[in-house]
C-alpha cells in the first residue's frame, strides 16, 4: 500500500482509495450513507482528513465479518462528536458484534444442513423443502394455495 507523507493532512479520493484499499465507488457510497465525510475544495473536489483512513479501516473490518452498513453507521454515530473510532471503540464494538456473528454462523450452519437435503432432490416443495418456504406460517395451518380466491364452478 502506498505511504502518504505525514505532512499531508488531507487526501484526495484517489489517495484514500489507494491507501485504504477501498474502491473509489465504495468511498462515494460510504459518504452517501453518512459513514464518512469530506470537505469540498473551491474546485468542488473532495478532500478527506487523514483520520478518515482509520474510519474506512473500521468500516471495512466490520463489513468483512458481515456487519450491515446501517449497524456500522449507528455505531459510528454513537461516538462523541462523531470522532474516529479508537482501539477501545473497536474492541468494545467487535466484542458486541461477536454475539451477532455467532448467531449468524449458527443460522448458516442450519441452512447448510438443509441444503444438503436439497442436493440431488430438486422438488422445491412448499410442504417438505425447508429452503423453498422457510417461513411458511400458513402452511402450518393448511395446505395448498388457500389464499387464492376459490374458482367459480370448479
Ligand atoms: S429441493 Fe427437495 S427438499 Fe429441498
Automatic annotation (TrEMBL):
SMART domains: HTH_MERR. Keywords: 2Fe-2S, DNA-binding, Iron, Iron-sulfur, Metal-binding, Transcription, Transcription regulation. Gene3D superfamilies: 1.10.1660.10. Residues 10-78 form the HTH merR-type domain. It holds the Pfam family MerR. The keyword Hydrolase does not apply. It comes from the Bacteria. This is Redox-sensitive transcriptional activator SoxR. It comes from Streptomyces lateritius. The gene is soxR.
Amino acid at each position: 500500500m502506498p505511504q502518504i507523507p505525514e505532512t499531508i493532512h488531507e487526501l484526495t479520493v484517489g489517495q484514500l482509495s489507494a491507501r485504504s484499499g477501498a474502491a473509489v465507488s465504495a468511498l462515494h457510497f460510504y459518504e452517501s450513507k453518512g459513514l464518512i465525510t469530506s470537505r469540498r475544495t473551491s474546485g468542488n473536489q473532495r478532500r478527506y482528513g487523514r483520520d478518515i483512513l482509520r474510519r474506512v479501516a473500521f468500516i471495512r473490518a466490520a463489513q468483512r465479518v458481515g456487519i450491515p452498513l446501517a449497524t456500522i453507521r449507528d455505531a459510528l454515530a454513537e461516538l462523541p462528536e462523531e470522532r474516529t473510532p479508537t482501539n477501545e471503540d473497536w474492541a468494545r464494538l467487535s466484542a458486541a458484534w461477536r454475539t451477532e456473528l455467532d448467531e449468524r454462523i449458527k443460522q448458516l450452519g442450519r441452512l447448510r444442513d438443509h441444503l444438503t437435503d436439497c442436493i440431488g432432490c430438486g422438488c422445491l416443495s412448499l410442504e417438505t423443502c425447508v429452503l423453498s418456504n422457510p417461513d411458511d406460517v400458513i402452511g402450518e395451518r393448511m395446505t395448498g394455495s388457500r389464499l387464492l380466491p376459490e374458482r367459480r364452478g370448479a
